[in-house]
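Notebook p. 47: complex prediction with guanosine-5'-diphosphate.
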Amino acid sequence: MPMHPMEKMLHQALFLQSAQRLDQCPPDEGLEVAFAGRSNAGKSSAINRLTGQRTLARTSKTPGRTQLLNFFQLDEERRLVDLPGYGYAKVSKSKRNEWQEHLDHYLSERQALVGLVLMMDIRHPLKDFDLLMLEWSAQANMPIHISRSKSLRGWRMSII
Ligand SMILES: Nc1nc2c(ncn2[C@@H]2O[C@H](COP(=O)(O)OP(=O)(O)O)[C@@H](O)[C@H]2O)c(=O)[nH]1
Ligand SMILES: [Mg+2]
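Predicted complex, C-alpha cells below:
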C-alpha cells in the first residue's frame, strides 16, 4: 500500500537544532507541533515512533535528560518540537524554575506553535503539570492532543 502523504512527511523528519531559550529557537515562522509532558513520559519515543526513525530524538531511561527544546524539520514550513521534560525532582529548585521559565516563554510567545501533544504515562495520569497544560491550552485556545504511553497493551498512539 502506498504511504500516506502525512506519513511520508513524518518519515522525512530531520534534526534541525536545539535551543535552551526562546531567542535561540529557529525563526518564528511556519507551523510547529510541540510534545509536552513530564520527564520520562515518552515524548521523545513518540516522536521517534511517529517519524519511523528509532534514534531521531534521544530517549533515556533516566528522567530529566532533555533540558533543551529540540526542533525537527518535516518540510519547509513544518516542525515538531521535543519540549523539556517537566517535574523531575532530582534537579535543584532554581534549575527547575529556570526550565519552567523557558518553557512558559516558548508556550506563550511562539507564534509558530499551532498545537500540542501532551504525553502521559498511563500509569501516572493527570498530574499537576498535565492539568496546568490542559488549562493553559484551553485558555490560550491551543489545540491539544493527549497521547498515552506505556500502556500494558503497548502503544496507544493516535496520530494528531
Ligand atoms: N514500555 C514502554 N516504554 C516506553 C514507552 N514510551 C517510552 N518508553 C520508555 O520510557 C523511557 C522514557 O522515554 P522518553 O521518550 O525518553 O521520555 P521523555 O523524557 O518524555 O522524552 C525510555 O526508557 C523509553 O524507552 C511506551 O509506550 N511503552
Ligand atoms: Mg525526551
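Notes: The chain has four helices and six strands. Residues 5-149 form a domain with the Rossmann fold fold (CATH 3.40.50.300).
Next step: compare against the earlier run before touching the bench.
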